[in-house]
């Protein structure tokens, strides 16, 4: 992620602070930006970062931006996809020190300074203001740095089984790109690919992907779980491989099955 100088202003309960480039310089890399927590309903038992991803030039929302919650040591703890209004929400597992990162094709990668979530329960409102980075189109050449064999080797290391031995074949980059060109969602891709036997349903809680009349398969992006209402916000142009683990596949990591989404950077 791009590092630089940042300023942050945090509003009172119910309003969002903004984190953007420029403004006050962060004096030390180890400095903590403390955020005041708003009250939560008694049903919520975790720290929640929420806000919007906005374009620096005009404050317009940046939909489908990938937002990550990262621990101080760099470990990724949660991931979300900004919706059509740019809104995101992420739950932190415990009080601690974190960064928020935002990425979207056409924008510079963005990273906040360190944020301290000190309350046992609290809402931390933070808007992420990103800067457009025009894509050069003349003579554009797309170059893949990871071969399918290398990707499968990485996936085997992470989940314990080789994609070629699984019931459903992986959905590879060319097939994903064909859907990007037609601007369809992850649910459409899952429904229209040749993975016969994968049943797609729309529910009030979001898309449901099933195999063998099982329950809804959990969906993971680079190993982190995605909530179902975020699934159709996943930007297909950021995906490299999709692996469907069936409950009949012998996987210690996902014994009940799962849909695994991977970006190219994760598989390098």
Describe this structure in words.
The structure is a single chain. The chain is mainly beta and 268 residues long. The protein folds into two domains: 6-130, Immunoglobulin-like (Sandwich); 148-267, Ferric Hydroxamate Uptake Protein, Chain A, domain 1, CATH 2.170.130.10. It has helices at 148-159, 173-181, 186-192, 264-267, and strands at 6-9, 17-21, 32-34, 47-55, 66-71, 76-81, 87-92, 96-103, 110-111, 114-117, 122-130, 198-203, 206-211, 219-221, 224-226, 241-245, 258-262. Strands 3, 5, 6, 8, 9 and 10 form a six-stranded mixed beta sheet that branches. The protein has a five-stranded mixed beta sheet with strand order 1-2-11-4-7, with no helix packed on it. Strand 14 (219-221) and strand 15 (224-226) form a beta hairpin. The longest helix has 12 residues, at 148-159. The protein is globular, with a radius of gyration of 19 Å.
